[in-house]
Amino acid sequence: MMGPVDSNMNFQEVALRLREQRQQVLASNIANADTPGYKARDFNFNQALAAALGQTGGNAMNMAQTASGHMPGISDTSNGVALQYRNPQQNTVNGNTVDLDTERNQFTDNALRYEASLTMVTMHIKKMLAAIQG
Amino acid sequence: MSLFSIFNVAGSGMSAQSQRLNVVASNLANADSATSSTGQVYRAKQVVFSAVPVSGADATGVQVEQVVEDKSPPRLKYDPQNPLADGKGYVAMPNVNVVEEMVNMISASRSYQTNVDMMNAAKTMLQKTLTLGQ
Fold this sequence. Notes:
The structure holds two protein chains of two kinds. By secondary structure, chain A is mostly helical. Chain A contains three helices and four strands; from the N terminus they run H-E-H-E-E-E-H. In chain A, the strands form two sheets. In chain A, strands 1-4 form a two-stranded antiparallel sheet. A two-stranded antiparallel sheet of chain A has the order 2-3. In chain A, strand 2 and strand 3 (81-82) form a beta hairpin. Chain A starts with a helix and ends with a helix. By secondary structure, chain B is of the alpha+beta class. Chain B has helices at 2-29, 98-130; strands spanning 45-53, 60-69, 75-78, 90-93. In chain B, the strands form two sheets. Chain B has a two-stranded antiparallel sheet. In chain B, strands 3-4 form a two-stranded antiparallel ribbon. In chain B, helix 1 (2-29) runs antiparallel to helix 2. The longest helix of chain B has 33 residues, at 98-130. The chains are: A mainly alpha, B alpha+beta. The A-B interface holds A 17, 20-21, 23-25, 27-28, 30-36, 38, 41, 78-79, 81, 83, 100, 104, 107-108, 111, 114-115, 118, 121-122, 125-126 and B 1-3, 5-6, 9-10, 12-13, 17, 20, 48-51, 56-62, 107, 111, 114-115, 118, 121-122, 124-125, 128-129, 132-134.
């Protein structure tokens, strides 16, 4: 709509949305740290961001459609994000694959990166205001 | 907003863990209860967790699916003076393993703390989002 201003903001907006989603997936893993048989899940942020921005290589998880009658065989996705199971570092007797250290590490990392994106948006808004007001 | 569903996920984790702590407390309090309201010896209780989807698409909370009774046989104590003693002078005591319960208690309290931390992190992220552009 607004051209360069909008597209510049769009990148951060998509990144923020994906960070939020990832935070939610990681929160689910941590909450289910003691649930028997629960498998920890996560998604590749880079791939999801590339897919959301419409770049190539993002939908590598989807099946190829070689004829017009083929159904789009989308893998376990939510809003176009492919969720994958984490490889367990240690096996547990109850079949749970949540490693609390890994999950908390990723959770904190993701939260910080979310705040970094927020700062970028704030700076962008300030820049625009400076350009308008002089 | 995916961040709001983190509150639901962490909340479900907190209530499930506190229920587990409740069961541990009941087991420890009744570690020496040779009889109960049913007239039978008290049996140790354990909670069974299961993953449950909450509002969002990827969000998975946790709930206490059922509370099961420990099937192991009661501990027999030789105490012929006890009115509950059988013909040979043995009293059936609860099958509560105090060491196991203490471990369970520490695990539940740590998991509860992790869920609280998670909720605080989500709250901070939301507050930062609210001040976006200021």
